[in-house]
Specification:
Shape: elongated
CATH topology of the largest domain: Rossmann fold
CATH class of the largest domain: Alpha Beta
Largest sheet: 6 strands, mixed
Mean pLDDT: 94
Oligomer: single chain
Low-confidence stretches: none
Structural class: alpha/beta
Distance between the termini: 35 Å
């Protein structure tokens, strides 16, 4: 086991309890997702894991050993890509990566090779002499990643690394994370973007209010809820009585309008599309586009907590 948190509790001076007996385990070689809304305790748990925050009770082990602020031998095997960009404005791209790599690798010739590999990995070769203020949001996020991974850590923690970046840069970052994992790194990935977690993570913990509310693979999480299918229909002349007609279909447990779309939610089993189309036809209900989708991680969160993962 690479990471083990047992019953960790953290309360801030304000009285806010950020973590409530939080426990989770990260196995070697996996991409482990911490999914939850802002304020759910994801970043706090990471800071406790790294011994950057003191906590009242519980135990944290990394690489099978107890983690403390003084365990620099453990910290040297960890790479951190924080949510807030942490680079020096007065240093160039190359100098920033060299500085952070130098915290772990004193040998200059070895460090030079590692810095070059990190620059190549995040595709910043054309920007090595640029200062951070000259970089776009996506490029500076890539620099942030290079600074955290240059020393070739065994465990890499990504805390919301794609916040405020464009879709192209986001895809580049996610591809890089998958490549790091293929090269042998164990990854902890925190996010409130369910699509990202679903795309790259082997195992997922859903957090809310400092607690684990559900965990498993994405398939296990989706199979754990009652929702089986969501059908969205563009009804051209929406009327309230149409909802009752659809609700009468067996296995449909919810039907409502969302803007111009009728949303139909049904339980597990065969698709209800033929029955819905039959009701629309028999009652001469005019409609346009129709979509069908399987449960998402947001549906899991909604069923468990009664609220959307993202507003």
């Amino acid at each position: 086991m690479i990471v083990k948190l047992e019953n960790v509790t953290k309360t801030y001076k304000s009285g806010v309890k950020a973590l409530h007996n939080l426990s989770y385990e990260v196995r070697e070689g996996e991409i482990y997702g911490l999914l939850g809304p802002n304020g759910s305790g994801k970043t706090t748990s990471i800071n406790c894991l790294l011994s950057l925050l003191k906590f009242e009770s519980g135990n944290i082990e990394i690489f099978g050993e107890k983690m403390t602020p003084e365990r620099y031998d453990i910290k040297s095997k960890i790479g951190v890509v924080p949510q807030n960009v942490a680079v020096f404005e007065e240093l160039t791209v190359y100098e920033n990566i060299d500085y952070f790599c130098g915290l772990y690798v004193p040998d200059q010739s070895k460090r030079k090779q590692l810095v070059e590999e990190a620059i190549d990995f995040v595709s910043l070769n054309d920007y090595r002499k640029f200062y951070p203020k000259k970089l776009s949001g996506g490029l500076i996020r890539r620099l942030n990643i290079a600074c955290g991974i240059a020393h070739k850590p065994s465990l890499i923690i990504f805390d919301e690394p794609t916040v405020a970046v464009d879709p192209q840069s986001r895809n580049k970052i996610l591809e890089g994370i998958l490549k790091l994992n293929e090269q042998g790194a164990t990854i902890i990935y925190t996010s409130h973007y369910m699509e990202e977690v679903e795309q790259i993570c082997d195992y997922i913990v859903i957090m809310d209010k400092g607690e684990v509310i559900k965990h498993g693979t994405k398939e296990e999480l989706k199979n754990s809820i009652s929702l089986g299918e969501t059908i969205e229909i563009q009804v051209l002349d929406p009327k309230v009585e149409y909802l009752d007609l659809i609700k009468a279909i067996p296995n449909v447990f919810e039907c409502y309008y969302k803007e111009e779309m009728m949303v139909v939610k049904s339980g597990k089993g065969k698709t209800n599309i033929p029955q819905v189309l039959n009701v629309l036809s028999l009652n001469e209900i005019k409609y346009g586009k129709m979509y069908s989708s399987l449960p998402t991680l947001n549906d899991v969160f909604l069923e468990i907590t009664g609220k959307q993962l993202r507003d």
